[in-house]
Amino acid sequence: MNFANILFLDIETVPQYADYHSLPKEWKELWDIKASYITRNKENETVDSVYHRAGIYAEFGKIVCIGCGFITGEGDQKKITIKSFCGDNEKLLLGEFCDMLAKWAGKEQKCLCAHNGKEFDFPYLCRRMIINGVCIPSILTIAGKKPWEVNHLDTLELWKFGDYKSYTSLNLLAHALGIPTPKDDIDGSMVWSVYWNDKDLQRIVTYCQKDVITLVQVFLKMNSESLIKTENIFYK
Q1: Which of 20, 146, 169, 211 is least buried, going by the fewest C-beta atoms within 10 A?
Q2: Phi, psi of 116, rounded to the nearest 5 degrees
Q3: What range does the domain containing 41 cover?
Q4: Per-residue buried b or exposed e for 123-154, using 16+ beta carbons within 10 Å of the residue's own CB
Q5: Domain count across the chain
Q6: CA 173, 70, 65 angle in degrees (round to 5)?
Q7: Cβ contacts of residue 106 below 8 Å, gap of 6+?
Q8: pLDDT (tens digit, 0 to 9) for every residue of the chain, 236 residues total?
Q9: How far, in Å, CA of 23 to CA of 16, rounded?
Q10: Could you tell me whether strands 233-235 and 152-154 are parallel, antiparallel, or unpaired per DSSP bridges?
Q11: What is the bridge-based pairing of β-strands 111-114 and 6-15?
């Protein structure tokens, strides 16, 4: 496998508004409908209290960071370069990401890889691109393609080996494979608060970049390849 032909990515998403009470009237009514399913049979939850989860739904959330990883070299000389697209202007960061993707993919047989990417990252990116009026790059498009023509890799799917009964987080998988993961001060459930309450986008970017590095190491381990040394990780 030519690892140089794979782009590893991870996205961080947040609700479009700071809190439930900031929602415009029409959006509040639509969220009430969506949240009614989330709070069903949960006595202590309300449409207000679960609003922080809005970021996982492309209709109610937005992307604030896309972390990308590229592998170069072979054997113990393998290197990974990390590049991030981030900001409050989602349309701008999506446009910059698409421009990079088009240049990188070219006309060669390239692949995208993410953990749970087929269920979350890839469709979320496409939905937000449509909403923002950004043309979806060919490598992300699945419409009209046969299954073997879709060049999307998913470490969660690879780990399932056909077993679709359970979900394994990237962090759990890394620990199971003996891959060291950095001790972060935040996790995915805290991203919305760090963005809206702390207004610390750089902290989210750092968290996203570490996830991309972990994703790369997990993929290499699953392909019986040596892991990339810390000193061979570079940021662009």
Answers
A1: 146
A2: 65, 25
A3: 22-56
A4: ebbbbbbeebebebbebbebeeeeeeebbbbb
A5: 2
A6: 75
A7: none
A8: 789 999 999 999 999 999 999 999 999 999 999 999 988 888 889 999 999 999 999 999 999 999 999 999 988 889 999 999 999 999 999 999 999 999 998 777 899 999 999 999 999 999 999 999 999 999 999 988 898 889 999 999 999 998 888 899 999 999 999 998 876 778 888 999 999 999 999 999 999 999 999 999 999 999 999 999 999 999 98
A9: 9
A10: unpaired
A11: parallel
Q: Which DSSP symbol is given to 148?
A: G
Alpha-helical segments (H) within 85-200: 90-105, 121-131, 155-160, 170-176, 191-196
> Are 116 and 33 members of one domain?
no
Enter the tokens of residue 40: 């069903």
Q: Are 68 and 213 in contact (CB under 8 A)?
A: no
Which structure tokens are listed for 130?
A: 């449509």
CATH label of the domain that carries residue 189:
3.30.420.10
Rounded Cα gap, residues 62 and 90, in angstroms: 7
Distance, CA of 10 to CA of 123 (rounded, Å): 12
